[in-house]
Amino acid sequence: MNVQSFLITFREALEAILIVGVIMTYLKRIGQTQWNKYVWIGVVLALAASYGTALLFQTVLTGFSMMGSQNYLKIGIMLVSCVLLAHMVLFMSQQSRNIQGAVEQKIAAILTVGGALNMIIHSFLVVVREGVETVFFFAAITGGDIQLALQSWGALFGLVLAFVVGILFFKGTKRIQLKTFFRITSIFLTMIAAGLLVQAVGIMQDIGIMGSMFRTPGGEIGEIYNLTAIMPEHPLDEEQYLRDSGEHTLINGQVGIFFKAFLGYTHNPSLEEFILYWAFYFVIMVLLGVQKKRHATLKASTAHIS
């Protein structure tokens, strides 16, 4: 259980730290650190909400009688976070083209009271999603006794390691130019957003909210390929594969569960998961292209007037 607590805490905390770190680093690089307080407000509110969820689960809920409600909450948070992350990618891309101009003044004009609320909501959703997921996962590995997982050395060590990795990551970005930083973090955030979308689709199909155009002869949702032998998405899948085939997987299931939580990896995607995953990238690329074209047109018009 200690190892499981460590892996859960590490991957959930690391994702939240990296995304919040991207926001904080971005604000620092453009000289708008006065907005940091709104990010921290969102983080603190999310931690309080996560603690409240854990307390509610520990003292009120019994077993998994509320699993359906948990799934709806999880789906909602994933979809909203996906949209906000996509918006952030487009926003960062737009600002990266204005680096040669007065970026600070333009950002100051954009980040109004609505911007402050945006900061709070976005940082809240980023952290609360990880916090609520951690509560659910801890409940799963302990049979509902979340306190047992929270008090384990695994949870503490996972949190500490996540902070260390996050600090090392952002110290390394100091040597990267702002435009390059935008591009790298945009790719990173797009991958996370796509992962959230496909995870939400998978949950909706599992609980029957969403159907599938591709089903097996038995009526079950079909898979377009299966990579269990290469990298299962969960240690339990690895154990089942070993039991059924007598062979070990190429990559450990612990690696798969990290990529599943981090990037939405699944070893046997449905048709809808596969299509929507890549369609999300396509839509983002189209929107970035449109944004770039508008910027070029505006720049040309400004030059012509001048």
Structure explained in plain terms:
- This protein is mainly α and about 300 residues long.
- The chain has a domain at about 1-210.
- It is built from eleven helices and no strands.
- It has helices at about 1-30, 35-60, 65-95, 105-110, 115-140, 145-150, 155-170, 180-205, 235-245, 255-265, 270-305.
- Helix 1 runs parallel beside helix 10 (about 255-265), helix 3 runs antiparallel to helix 8 (about 180-205) and helix 9 (about 235-245) crosses helix 10.
- Mean pLDDT is about 75; it is low at about 100-110.
What does the largest sheet look like? none
SSE series: HHHHHHHHHHH
How many strand units? 0
SS summary, helix count: 11
Our Rg estimate from Cα atoms comes to 21 Å
Binned strand content: under 5%
Task: Give the helix proportion (percent range).
Answer: over 70%
N- to C-terminal distance: 67 Å
So what's the overall shape? Answer: globular
Q: Mean pLDDT across all residues, rounded?
A: 75
Structural class: mainly alpha
Report low-confidence residues grouped into runs of 5 or more: 99-110
